[in-house]
Amino acid sequence: MSPYLEIFLRAVGAFVAVVFITRMIGKSQVGGLTIADWVNGIVIGSIAANMVTQLDEPAGYYAFGLLLFMVLTIVSQWAGMKYRPVHKMLTDEPTVVVHNGKILEGNMRKMRYTVDDLTSQLRQEGAFNISDVEFAVAEPNGKLSVLLKSQAAPVTPQDLNVPTKYKGIPSELVVDGVIIRQNLKQNNLDEQWLLGELQKQGIQSLSEVFYASLDSDGNLYVDKKRDDLDYVQDITDKLPGKMPQ
């Protein structure tokens, strides 16, 4: 058998095997990746490492293996878009693990999902009490989506019928002493205006500015390279040293 034919058969077998095994170990092990991403991360990384370290085999074999996995990934992605069953096989489906404050142990067992996994991810979403959770859904990438009960959810301006102003994304105007001229132009501003605003804050040179941005209300935020702070809170248990600039 040709070495390249053998590599082809091995690559196809490895791809299918890793997808199958990943489906079996459950969402909690995927770590924020889809199954296809998980396969690529493990197998392609392994092949690339062997290409560098295994000097007794021609590098062309490993390069061919990498090419095959790239092709298999593209084909599987195309098949997933074309055929829904393939998409479900490669990406899995969301699974409800909490419903109306009740843990669905059966669904958790199917995913190899522990109570520690659940409570940890609930805390990350700001839900410290399971009884406050209306729905918790384990997504295909292993993350947890949480819907709090209406009585436990934070009150929003919409709930109180309070009108709010539009709040867009701030525009970066200066990064490490360099003006982002395109953003100035988009906001119908010029360098003269920027330098004038900086002088109002006691800044005489752009070289003093680490970061400056303009929010949707027209407020200019400026962070200088040297922060004039008498004390910086240290939340570690390291011995006190020189205060960072």
From TrEMBL:
Q: Which InterPro entries match?
A: DUF421 (IPR007353), UPF0702_alpha/beta_dom_sf (IPR023090), YetF_N (IPR048454)
Primary subcellular site in the record, as a coarse category: membrane
Recorded GO cellular component terms are: plasma membrane
Q: Which UniProt keywords apply?
A: Cell membrane, Membrane, Transmembrane, Transmembrane helix
Which spans are transmembrane here? 7-26, 38-55, 61-80
Q: Where is the YetF C-terminal domain?
A: 82-214
In what way does this protein cross or attach to the membrane? Multi-pass membrane protein
Please state every residue range assigned to the domain named YetF-like N-terminal transmembrane. Answer: 4-77
Q: What is this protein called?
A: Predicted membrane protein
Could you tell me where this protein is found in the cell?
Answer: Cell membrane
Instruction: Spell out the family assignment given in the record's similarity comment.
Output: Belongs to the UPF0702 family.
- The region annotated as signal peptide is none
The domain of life for this entry's organism is Bacteria
